[in-house]
Amino acid sequence: MTEQHHPGDGSDANRSGRSPATADQAPSRRRSPWRWYLDVPLIWKLGVALVLGVVVGLVVGPPVTVIEPLGEIFLRLLMMLVMPLILLTLISGVASVSPKTLGRVGGKIFVFYLVTTAFAISLGIGLALLISPGAGLTLTGDEEAEAQEAPGLAEVFTNIVPENIFTALSEGEILAVMFFAIIAGIALSYMQDSTDERLAGLASLLRRITEGGLEIIFLLIRGILQYSPIGVFALIAVAVGETGADALLPLAALTGVMYGGIALQIVVYTLILLVFRAQIGRFFKAAKEPMLTAFVTRSSGGTLPVSTQAAQQLGVRKSVYSFTLPFGATVNMDGTAIYVGAATVFVANVTGTELTLLQLVTIALVGVLASIGTAGVPGAGLIMLTMTVTSAGLPMAPVALVAGIDAILDMGRTMCNVTGDLVGTRIVAQTEEGMLVDGSTEDEPDEEPHTPGADP
């Protein structure tokens, strides 16, 4: 914008008394409505879209369905990215951990993250089944008819191994794509450490291609998130227009289930810390700042610098937290797991679907596996929800209701994610000799001067 003018032009005009207002007004005239829209925080845009959607839906009523294609485009954009996101994030994430690093610390923190995530999604499913937040709300149309019957248990495990990865990608077979991505990532990790220069060179090239593909996906996600207020407005307006005010109470119930689950998960973290004789007051004194930062920014990755400082205050060595915290920002999604479990049951309630035990197991399994490849950025939880809803054979239409309050739910679940990262880091450090220094807030001099995981 103003870079096209010489830097001294405005100041010279002010000193000589020549049209200072012209220099001041030029930037505002050149500021486009699109730039102004981009500068508004996404959470505010989604909040406004939610409120406007509810108001317009209540006022206009059923005729508001004329804007339904705007919401359908939003859902299609989300579905478009699910498969490439799973494939690229899992391959890149697994390959980033070299075979040599997969030692005691890596193994312990990985098990901790998976166990707590499995517990969290089970907690979300259990609370939602107990309360049934979507009961009594029915969307018009043929959504219920679209629900698919779940396959048998033997078929589920057999289908995890794909016959053709391209067929699995095109047909949306999530578990099969995850399986292929995990084993491909492990193979790429071993190739990187190969003594054969040709294999190592090919691995480096493949890693760069994968990371480049990820950057493309992240750019697309950011673009879709800019469109999301329009999609959310249309989806909420249509949903409320067709169902009336009946949609508001179930959404409030889902929010209550979500935050109730987060509160219980934090209680579980406290009990784990007590088992390992950690000082609860000291832990939460150090963790309160990253918890608040995560709540506001809704980004586990963006909170990493603050989480690193908290780990130092807890006396954790850099050789532990430099791996566990960045790894947790991608793998550990306890809050998101609660959200996914509760929201998937909400979708089933809305469509009148009685979830079978096999479907519940599938939801939990997909939720845990999807947490491995879900990036710690705002909006990723909505894509993870799309995965579980699809894997359970449920229709996507009710996800519109959840998308409308996603920003509100995202703040709490991100805070829970970051808290779990710090709890796991603290516990693993205590189980490793010399990795926890009580009362220390500084790195020990015998450690490496730099660790890649500690970069912002």
UniProtKB/TrEMBL annotation:
UniProt-recorded name of the protein: Dicarboxylate/amino acid:cation symporter
Membrane-spanning segments: 36-61, 73-97, 109-131, 174-191, 212-239, 251-276, 357-377, 383-405
Phylogenetic lineage: Bacteria, Bacillati, Actinomycetota, Actinomycetes, Micrococcales
Keywords: Cell membrane, Membrane, Transmembrane, Transmembrane helix, Transport
Region (Disordered): 1-27, 433-456
Highest taxon of the lineage: Bacteria
SUPFAM superfamilies linked to this entry: Proton glutamate symport protein (SSF118215)
Record-linked InterPro entries: Na-dicarboxylate_symporter, Na:dicarbo_symporter_sf
Location(s), subcellular: Cell membrane
First-listed, main subcellular location of the protein, grouped into a coarse class: membrane
Pfam family membership, one: SDF
Membrane topology classification: Multi-pass membrane protein
